[in-house]
Design goal:
This protein has nine helices and 14 strands. It has 333 residues and is an alpha+beta fold. It binds N-oxalylglycine and nickel (II) ion.
């Protein structure tokens, strides 16, 4: 028997007006009960075209230390490039089910089309199907698990990468100089040219009970950092001062999440952000995070330049693959 996809469950649920029990989160997680509606500051928005680049660095450092997340505008990726990249991704999810299953994720593999099979500790499931594949560096790409349809899929992804890679490099530099380091330090510590970029496309179908379900449960990303573009259906929430706050949708912005590896490298100066996503009653939400990850065998720990007797290492030093293994299997680091 094939895996049950959320897209299929959604089409039945939307007719019934209810969702299966295993998608109903416990009360302390339900968005209807836990979303904060009081006055909150908005996620920082940083204009990369600001002529005062020192100020940009300062804003990025502040946002990364206090929020662990920010939105960037005027980031250099043309709007039509993002639109086309999103169009081809959405097209894939709208193909007949048997077409999508041709690139289904196999057990133990990171890449492919999938649905979370294991229930979480509390026995709950999330309202999302996804597609994972690497997009950088080019020599590791496995086009067998990329969608064959639409035919423009590959070109649209190549084009997005052409602009994304320089943006990633630029963000590495701001984050590095913001720690008082040479601009190339963080990139080198993350694998230099062997750093990997893994794309995930999240497809959250309409859900008759968005107050009870979650698209992605609360987590921090394992990456160094993650660059995400959503569609125009809001849903990302961020934990700020113990409150779940909505990230505002800003057309043409890219959302930058600080992940666990930057928290470790910066010895805690940059915070890996807790976030989750909600779903929508009538509309399909989609998002396209790109996880920037060190190569599996690279050893990551607090940068020696940032550690001293007064400021001892707050994290263990270990290979990225060992970090990943512990995180995925919920073993303490
Ligand atoms: C993720 C994630 C958030 C979103 O897939 O890691 O955090 O907005 N997604 O879809
Ligand atoms: Ni995430």
């Amino acid at each position: 028997m094939g895996v049950e996809r959320v897209q299929t469950i959604a089409s039945l649920s939307n007719n019934l007006g209810t969702i299966p029990q295993e998608f109903i989160r416990s009360e302390h997680e339900q968005p209807g009960k836990t979303t904060f509606h009081g006055p909150v500051p908005e996620l920082p928005v940083i204009d990369l075209a600001n002529p005062d680049q020192y100020q940009v660095t300062r804003e990025i450092v502040e946002a990364s230390s206090e929020w662990g997340i920010f939105q960037v505008v005027n980031h250099g990726i043309p709007e039509e490039v993002v639109k086309e990249f999103q169009r081809v991704g959405r097209h894939f999810f709208e193909l007949p089910q048997e077409e999508k299953e041709k690139i289904a994720k196999q057990p133990g593999m990171k890449e492919g089309y999938g649905t979370k099979l294991h229930r979480e500790p509390e026995g709950k499931k999330t309202w999302v199907d996804f597609l994972y594949h690497n997009i950088w560096p080019q020599h590791i790409l496995n086009y067998n698990i990329w969608p064959q349809s639409p035919p423009e899929y590959r070109k649209a992804n190549d084009e997005y990468c052409k602009y994304l890679v320089p943006l990633v490099d630029r963000l590495f530099e701001y984050l590095s100089t913001g720690l008082g380091l040479e601009k190339n330090v963080l990139k080198e510590a993350s694998g230099g040219d062997n750093m990997k970029m893994l794309l995930k496309i999240n497809y959250y179908p309409p859900c008759p009970r968005p107050d009870l379900a979650l698209g992605v449960a609360a987590h921090t990303d394992m990456s160094t950092f993650t660059l995400l573009v959503p569609n125009d259906v809001p849903g990302l929430q961020v934990l700020k001062d113990d409150h779940w706050v909505d990230a505002k949708y800003i057309p043409n912005a890219t959302i930058v999440h600080i992940g666990d590896q930057f928290e470790i490298l910066s010895n805690g100066k940059y915070k890996s952000v807790w976030h989750r996503s909600t779903v929508n009653k009538d509309q399909t939400r989609m998002s396209w995070p790109v996880f920037c990850e060190p190569p599996a065998d690279l050893v990551i720990g607090p940068l020696p330049q940032l550690v001293s007797d007064e400021n001892p290492a707050k994290f263990k030093t270990k290979k990225f693959k060992d970090y990943e293994y512990c995180k995925l299997n919920k073993i303490p680091q």
